[in-house]
């Protein structure tokens, strides 16, 4: 093959033309051809060997040897590798390097338990023996590298030496490999590499690898490391590398004298201790420095530079002298003499990457060695040599060395001080601690998360003695340190790195560490808290003077090429990332205050008057309008909650209510309706701005909108603070809301809530195309102002737009094509659904207004609901079997005052009237729907239990009267017609049906006697509190049921409104429902139990724990008169049947009503009602039997789809439901009417008719073909779900009355069988009842009187089982359910 003058690819193509080689074998064939072609020449043969070695490395690293590892790494391969390494031919250098790299990859196969190779490599290389091949090779390589004049040719060129050291590093990373290197005495050779003075980049790389290998094996052989002077070698090598760096960067932090001496430190500490009493008012006027000209750490005027001679220090000259006279505060100098450390970054140079890697490895080793107990004796003298000087240079030049080396150097100092705290004074004497403090508190700290998070730990180490504490205080550390929270240069470090990291976690970590520092050094607490308050004040100052950056600008802040330009015009405010500032500062403060459960920090914060700037943040004018829903607002609320919960400081709520009250007073223009033709106040403000598209970002253009945003922020804070389970905090909250200020705020919030609902209604109507009639000028002027000049000619007004929709299709298409981009006019969509560019532009500008109003309305509703729970208090939990009732606690005076204010809110919403310019009654209906829905959670809890306190004040505040007045207004079309004629007129405005549905839903809860009498939110009957009025739920029931009956009578027998009817019954588990009903519980209660639980067991427990109790006691109020109810019961059946003919889905409610009437009026009324109903059914069945005289199509139509069949079906369904409640009465009525025989005859006739006229196999397109799926319903069809089911039944050829008819016959048959069995059982029973005692496992007899009570109850012919109770030692209840 080597003699063929063709490439392997050409040979392969020729073979494939002649032979048919399978595709999976072609690559194998090609590799053999290439190997044979290249094997004849030495150079190409070496390339094949090298490619083979590299391929093995790739396969191992890719973990691709799971199945064929034994084949590829065959036995003897490692021996062959060693033989290759033993060859002395210099031409094989690349092969040897590739061999070592392959061995390095095979080392990691030790992670595969099924195929370990590490021990084999150690054996074949002799790594564990001093005279083994690998140790000898390493020593030879090291001697060659460190030789003054290396031999020529070099037996260990750079690639081979690099591969060898890499192999050593990976071998040492495993315990077995490390032990082998220790056994062969490798430590001495590696330390000699560290002592080697080579400073070339390639040489430094080898030293770095040697340091890393030493780091891995030192734990296994500390004695050898110490014996050969390893620590000294590391320190000297570090000094050599730092000296090389000094040649490029000679800068070093120097001070004229130490920061503090013993005597002066005491004075500084005393001065710091008295700083607590200083006022922070001056901090409020301090401006945030301009980061374009100031250093991020500076707090005063720009610094003035020192001379270069004062800053440069030669290595031989000591930087500090302990014998110099000391000053009290060497750092506390005037701004004019403060050093300019910009000199350190003027060179623009950075440390050589290879040298930086070496220094990092050595510092990492020192950091771990200091904490190792085995080096404790050596480490005591660590800082007596040249190491402090090296650390000073690294710490002084963070810009040159990088943040990572700066952090490692400070960490070395920190761990040394913590390990040897008694030697801190020596570090202070040689000036190392002063350099650290200067670098961290005067220079700019490197903007990385790790450095910022390590600062408090470093400060804690440096403050372990009084001298260090004095030096720390002398630097005024907190004001300078906290500036990182308000610097754009540090924002990238504050942000999270990954989506899984919490926002602001860097600031939180910094706050937690600062809290630990303050607790370790209590004397710093006052000064630190003062600086914290000042930082919060700076945040508020920045928010008042500078506009906030937009989100896309803040996202790329810190990347210099993406920073927005700063060349603003004269007088223009420079935007700042205000939201990020607030988030970072609040995360930091919250971590300090809440890191521990003690209240000392919170009280100090309040004492320093921190509440004023803290709560002022929420009302900053330059915050974006979406700030209330941001995490920054939530962080402010968290700080307020921490202060309230830990310190029980009511000033948080008081100050918050004061700020909120000021904002509410500024919203007075929002409550003034606009003159005719009317519109939205918020929209008018936006339209009046010079540039409506950008007005929402500027508080000067939209002051009302930004004030609403501030109110929203305060509401979110109050909701977060007041939502707590601590009883004491709940009482503090309600007491503050019950003050004069709190009630004034509630009154303002009441007015704001009604205005917001109106604004939302108007804005939503303006965003809809068909909400307003054609030609209506309501809000038109403002919407037209939103359009730019180029779009104003496109939309000719709302009247013309609406008129265009009713024109012919082709005309509309022409208009659409003229106003839409090319191609859209030819689409198949309806032209009325296509929005013009002008409409889209208007909706885009209106949407922020609508979103702000809606979000604030939801927040207000949440706050009001929370206040209701605070007023009412936690419900009392009655344990099962608990006999002693827990005494009720009367509400406090504040709770009653707040409840009264909330009741006035409900009254205001229900009695609200629209402005005179309101164009449609629908607007008021929409408003009332919102008010009624809002009233529901204010009066009832999540389990439909009423709050008696709220009901009491709802009634006394005329809210109940307003509730029924809204009903009168709705059914009389705003007073334009009589209430009895409104529903029948068909002229009620759109939305009346939805309002009645909502209104009746609330009314149903108000008249429910079970929840009203069994509510856990009851009030005591008596109380000694002044002004307390008891609440009688029974009187309330009597009163409201009278009003409800009168209102419902105005709806009785009225024609249902369009799109209005009984809501479809929610889907429930029918098996659970039937199981509960079989236990004897009513259907309505079973549905309620299933809705309140998840399992059948929970539903059963709910029914047992909430029994229906008969009201006990007499009240002065008279219920509905007997004559009124008698008159209603006389025509109730007729009214029910007429409603069922229109709305068959009401059959369950009709059954409940008839059952209730039968219980009230007795058996005679029941029998008459059943007789009338069943006679109607029998008559209708007789009419259906006449279908036998008709033609086949007419007969099928009469039986299946006629109106008579529909009425017959719903009445049969009603009888089957009534049969469950009154079995004997139904059975007797059926026997008298002969209904059973009639139904049987009807079934027989229907069967014959349907058999003779089967459904046609080719059904219409609207009827689904057998075996196919029906078409999916449209949104409009979903409202007629039940009617569709009936139509499907009709189209299938099955009468709707067939199922209820068969069910009725089945019930009749079961009753007949049960009656006969009961008669037979009565002859055999001895009428003696017993009960089973679980303790003795015996049946025990009852007493004679109790036995008679039980026996009479069992044999009594009641329609439903009765309960019988008596008391002896325990409470007994026996309940029977039988066929009646």
UniProtKB/TrEMBL annotation:
<feature type="domain" description="UBA">
    <location>
        <begin position="1067"/>
        <end position="1106"/>
    </location>
</feature>
<protein>
    <recommendedName>
        <fullName>UBA domain-containing protein</fullName>
    </recommendedName>
</protein>
<dbReference type="GO" id="GO:0005737">
    <property type="term" value="C:cytoplasm"/>
</dbReference>
<dbReference type="InterPro" id="IPR009060">
    <property type="entry name" value="UBA-like_sf"/>
</dbReference>
<dbReference type="InterPro" id="IPR015940">
    <property type="entry name" value="UBA"/>
</dbReference>
<dbReference type="InterPro" id="IPR010314">
    <property type="entry name" value="E3_Ub_ligase_DUF913"/>
</dbReference>
<dbReference type="GO" id="GO:0005634">
    <property type="term" value="C:nucleus"/>
</dbReference>
<dbReference type="InterPro" id="IPR050409">
    <property type="entry name" value="E3_ubiq-protein_ligase"/>
</dbReference>
<dbReference type="InterPro" id="IPR016024">
    <property type="entry name" value="ARM-type_fold"/>
</dbReference>
<feature type="region of interest" description="Disordered">
    <location>
        <begin position="815"/>
        <end position="841"/>
    </location>
</feature>
<feature type="compositionally biased region" description="Basic and acidic residues">
    <location>
        <begin position="1278"/>
        <end position="1290"/>
    </location>
</feature>
<dbReference type="GO" id="GO:0006511">
    <property type="term" value="P:ubiquitin-dependent protein catabolic process"/>
</dbReference>
<dbReference type="Pfam" id="PF06025">
    <property type="entry name" value="DUF913"/>
</dbReference>
<feature type="compositionally biased region" description="Polar residues">
    <location>
        <begin position="305"/>
        <end position="330"/>
    </location>
</feature>
<dbReference type="InterPro" id="IPR037197">
    <property type="entry name" value="WWE_dom_sf"/>
</dbReference>
<feature type="region of interest" description="Disordered">
    <location>
        <begin position="1251"/>
        <end position="1294"/>
    </location>
</feature>
<dbReference type="InterPro" id="IPR041918">
    <property type="entry name" value="UBA_HUWE1"/>
</dbReference>
<feature type="compositionally biased region" description="Basic residues">
    <location>
        <begin position="543"/>
        <end position="554"/>
    </location>
</feature>
<dbReference type="Pfam" id="PF00627">
    <property type="entry name" value="UBA"/>
</dbReference>
<feature type="compositionally biased region" description="Polar residues">
    <location>
        <begin position="829"/>
        <end position="841"/>
    </location>
</feature>
<dbReference type="GO" id="GO:0000209">
    <property type="term" value="P:protein polyubiquitination"/>
</dbReference>
<feature type="region of interest" description="Disordered">
    <location>
        <begin position="256"/>
        <end position="346"/>
    </location>
</feature>
<keyword id="KW-0808">Transferase</keyword>
<feature type="region of interest" description="Disordered">
    <location>
        <begin position="539"/>
        <end position="574"/>
    </location>
</feature>
<dbReference type="GO" id="GO:0061630">
    <property type="term" value="F:ubiquitin protein ligase activity"/>
</dbReference>
């Amino acid at each position: 093959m080597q003699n063929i003058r063709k490439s392997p690819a050409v040979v392969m193509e020729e073979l494939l033309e002649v032979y048919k080689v399978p595709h999976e074998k072609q690559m194998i064939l090609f590799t053999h051809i290439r190997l044979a072609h290249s094997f004849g020449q030495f150079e190409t043969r070496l390339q094949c060997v090298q490619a083979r070695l590299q391929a093995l490395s790739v396969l191992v690293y890719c973990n691709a040897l799971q199945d064929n590892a034994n084949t590829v790494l065959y036995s003897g391969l490692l021996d062959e590798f060693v033989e290759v390494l033993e060859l002395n031919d210099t031409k094989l250098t690349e092969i040897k390097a590739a061999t070592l790299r392959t061995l390095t990859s095979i080392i990691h196969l030790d992670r595969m338990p099924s195929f370990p190779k590490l021990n084999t490599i150690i054996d074949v290389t002799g790594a564990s023996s001093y005279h083994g091949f690998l140790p000898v090779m390493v020593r030879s390589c090291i001697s060659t590298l460190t030789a003054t004049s290396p031999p020529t040719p070099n037996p260990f060129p750079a690639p081979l030496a690099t591969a060898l050291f890499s192999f050593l590093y990976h071998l040492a990373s495993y315990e077995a490999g490390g032990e082998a290197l220790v056994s062969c005495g490798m430590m001495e050779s590696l330390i000699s590499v560290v002592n080697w003075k080579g400073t070339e980049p390639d040489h430094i790389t080898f030293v770095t690898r040697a340091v890393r290998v030493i780091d891995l094996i030192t734990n296994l052989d500390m004695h050898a490391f110490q014996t050969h002077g390893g620590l000294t070698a590391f320190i000297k090598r570090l000094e050599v590398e730092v000296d090389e760096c000094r040649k490029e960067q000679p800068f070093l932090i120097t001070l004229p004298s130490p920061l503090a001496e013993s005597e002066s430190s005491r004075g500084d500490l005393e001065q710091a201790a008295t700083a607590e009493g200083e006022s922070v008012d001056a901090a409020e006027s301090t401006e945030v420095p301009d980061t374009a000209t100031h250093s991020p750490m500076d707090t005063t005027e720009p610094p003035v530079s020192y001379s270069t001679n004062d800053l440069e220090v030669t290595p031989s000259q000591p930087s500090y002298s302990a014998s110099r006279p000391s000053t009290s505060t060497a750092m506390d100098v005037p701004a004019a003499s403060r050093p300019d450390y910009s000199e350190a970054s003027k060179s623009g140079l950075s440390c050589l990457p290879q040298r930086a890697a070496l220094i990092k490895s050595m510092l990492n080793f020192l950091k771990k060695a200091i904490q190792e107990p085995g080096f404790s004796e050596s480490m005591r003298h660590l800082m007596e040599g040249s190491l402090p000087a090296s650390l000073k240079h690294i710490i002084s030049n963070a810009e040159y060395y990088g943040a990572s080396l700066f952090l490692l150097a400070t960490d070395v100092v920190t761990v040394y001080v913590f390990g040897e705290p008694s030697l801190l004074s020596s570090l202070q004497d040689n000036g190392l601690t002063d350099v650290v403090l200067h670098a961290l508190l005067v220079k700019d700290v490197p903007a990385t998360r790790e450095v910022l998070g390590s600062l408090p730990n470093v400060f804690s180490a440096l403050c372990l003695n009084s001298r260090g504490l004095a030096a720390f205080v002398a630097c005024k550390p907190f004001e300078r340190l906290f500036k990182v929270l308000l610097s754009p240069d540090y924002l990238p470090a504050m942000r999270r790195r990954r989506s899984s990291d919490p926002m602001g976690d860097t600031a939180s970590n910094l706050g937690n560490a600062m809290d630990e520092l303050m607790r370790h050094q209590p004397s710093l607490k006052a000064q630190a808290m003062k600086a914290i308050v000042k930082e919060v004040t700076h945040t508020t100052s920045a928010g008042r003077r500078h506009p906030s950056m937009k989100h896309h600008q803040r996202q790329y802040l810190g990347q210099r090429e993406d920073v927005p330009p700063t060349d603003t015009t004269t007088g223009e405010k420079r935007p700042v990332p205000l939201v990020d500032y607030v988030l970072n500062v609040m995360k930091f403060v919250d971590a300090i205050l809440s890191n521990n459960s003690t209240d000392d920090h919170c009280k100090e914060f309040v004492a320093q008057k921190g509440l004023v700037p803290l709560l002022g943040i929420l009302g900053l004018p330059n915050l974006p309008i979406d700030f209330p829903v941001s995490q920054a607002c939530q962080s402010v609320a968290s700080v307020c909650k921490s202060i309230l919960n830990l310190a029980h400081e009511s000033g948080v709520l008081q100050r918050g209510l004061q700020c909120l009250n000021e904002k509410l007073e500024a919203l007075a223009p929002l409550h003034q309706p606009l003159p005719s033709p009317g519109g939205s106040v918020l929209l008018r403000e936006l339209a009046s701005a010079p540039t409506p598209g950008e007005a929402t970002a500027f508080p000067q253009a939209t002051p009302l909108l930004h004030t609403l945003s501030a109110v929203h922020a305060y509401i979110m804070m109050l909701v977060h603070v007041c939502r707590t389970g601590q009883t004491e905090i709940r009482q503090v909250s309600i007491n503050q809301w019950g003050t004069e200020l709190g009630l004034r705020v509630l009154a303002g919030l009441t007015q704001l809530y009604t205005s917001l609902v109106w604004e939302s209604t108007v804005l939503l109507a303006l965003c809809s195309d068909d909400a307003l009639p054609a030609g209506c000028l309501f809000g038109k002027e403002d919407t037209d102002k939103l359009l730019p000049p180029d779009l104003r000619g496109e939309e000719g007004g709302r009247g013309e737009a609406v008129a265009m929709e009713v024109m012919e299709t082709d005309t509309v298409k022409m208009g659409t094509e003229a106003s839409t981009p090319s191609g859209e006019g030819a689409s198949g969509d309806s032209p009325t659904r296509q929005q013009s560019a002008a409409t889209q532009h208007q909706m885009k500008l209106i949407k922020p207004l609508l979103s702000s109003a809606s979000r604030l309305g939801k927040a207000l509703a949440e706050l009001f609901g929370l206040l209701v729970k605070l007023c009412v208090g936690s419900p009392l939990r009655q344990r099962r079997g608990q006999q002693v009732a827990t005494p009720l606690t009367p509400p406090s005076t504040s709770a009653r005052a707040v409840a009264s204010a909330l009741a006035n809110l409900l009254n205001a919403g229900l009695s609200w009237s629209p402005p005179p310019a309101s164009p449609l009654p629908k607007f008021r209906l929409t408003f009332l729907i919102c008010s009624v829905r809002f009233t529901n959670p204010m009066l009832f809890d999540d389990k439909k239990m009423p709050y008696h306190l709220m009901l009491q004040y709802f009634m006394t505040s005329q809210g109940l009267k307003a509730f029924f007045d809204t009903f009168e207004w709705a059914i009389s079309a705003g007073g334009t017609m009589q209430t009895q004629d409104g529903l029948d007129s068909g002229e009620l405005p759109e939305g009346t049906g939805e309002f009645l549905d909502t209104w009746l839903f609330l009314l149903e809860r108000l008249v429910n006697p079970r929840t009203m009498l069994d509510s856990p939110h009851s009030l005591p009957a008596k109380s000694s509190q002044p002004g307390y009025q008891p609440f009688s739920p029974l009187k309330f029931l009597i009163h409201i049921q009278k009003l409800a009956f009168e209102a419902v009578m105005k709806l009785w027998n009225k024609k249902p409104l369009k799109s209005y009817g009984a809501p479809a019954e929610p889907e429930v588990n029918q098996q659970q429902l039937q199981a509960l009903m079989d236990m004897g519980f009513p259907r309505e209660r079973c549905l309620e139990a299933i809705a309140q639980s998840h399992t059948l067991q929970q539903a059963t427990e709910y029914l047992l724990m909430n029994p229906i109790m008969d009201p006990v006691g007499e009240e002065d109020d008279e219920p509905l008169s007997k004559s009124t109810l008698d008159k209603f019961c006389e025509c109730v059946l007729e009214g029910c049947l007429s409603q069922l003919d229109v709305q068959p889905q009401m059959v369950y409610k009709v059954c409940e009503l008839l059952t209730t009437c039968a219980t009230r009026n007795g058996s005679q009324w029941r029998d008459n009602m059943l007789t009338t109903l069943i006679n109607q059914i029998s008559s209708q069945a007789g009419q259906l039997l006449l279908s036998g005289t008709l033609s086949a199509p007419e007969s099928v139509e009469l039986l299946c789809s006629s109106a008579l069949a529909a009425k017959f079906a719903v009445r049969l369904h009603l009888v089957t439901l009534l049969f469950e409640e009154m079995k004997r009465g139904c059975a007797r009525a059926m026997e008298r009417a002969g209904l059973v025989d009639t139904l049987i005859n009807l079934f027989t006739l229907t069967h014959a008719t349907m058999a003779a006229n089967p459904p046609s196999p080719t059904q219409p397109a609207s009827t689904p073909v057998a075996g196919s799926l029906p078409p999916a319903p449209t949104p409009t069809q979903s409202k007629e779900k039940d009617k569709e089911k009936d139509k499907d039944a009709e189209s299938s050829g099955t009468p709707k009355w067939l199922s209820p008819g068969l069910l009725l016959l089945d019930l009749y048959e079961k009753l007949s069988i049960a009656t006969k069995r009961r008669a037979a059982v009565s002859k055999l029973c001895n009428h003696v009842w017993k009960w089973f005692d679980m303790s003795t496992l015996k049946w025990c007899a009852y007493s004679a009187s109790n036995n008679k009570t039980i026996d009479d109850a069992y044999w009594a012919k009641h329609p439903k089982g009765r309960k019988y109770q008596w008391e002896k030692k325990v409470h007994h209840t026996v309940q029977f359910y039988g066929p009646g």
